[in-house]
Amino acid sequence: MNIETQLDQLANLQAQADVIRLQFIELRRTIITPEIQAQLDELDAEMLSTLEPVTQATNDLTEAIKENVITAKASVKGTFLQAVYSKPRVTWDNKGLDGFMVAHPEIKAFRKEGEPSVSIRSVK
Asked: Residue 124 burial (CB < 10 Å; 0-12/13-18/19+)?
């Protein structure tokens, strides 16, 4: 089986899962009365408004922690969470260096190539 066929098969399985989820959501709607659904909607709205200040404080504190860790240039471990510092990535102009390597083959010893990776994305 070729890769295009496998991708189409994967998309089909994902679509089947979506259809099954939608069927169960629809079944749930037939069980829940409009009155109960209205109560659930009110409860959801109340939960969101109650969570909003905590969510904002979480976002603000997360950004402050990141800034402090970047300033300290070191990872910090708390009791339950840790902030892991990663050095900035260094990138090179590979096309330019490959051309330079033709004239200076001694730099090839410093070239490392990692493993390939694959991410599956929707076609746009």
From this structure: exposed
Distance CA 36, CA 14 (A): 31
Q: What is the mean pLDDT of residues 51-55?
A: 98
pLDDT of residue 1: 85
Mean pLDDT of the chain: 94
Enumerate helices (H) and strands (E) in the chain, giving the number of each: 3, 2
Structural domain spans, the chain: 32-110
Is residue 50 a contact partner of residue 58, using CB atoms and an 8 Å limit?
Answer: no
Report whether 69 contacts 83 (CB < 8 A).
Answer: yes
Distance between CA atoms of residues 7 and 20, nearest Å: 20
Look at residue 77 in the predicted model and tell me its pLDDT: 93
Flag whether the pTM goes above 0.90.
Answer: no
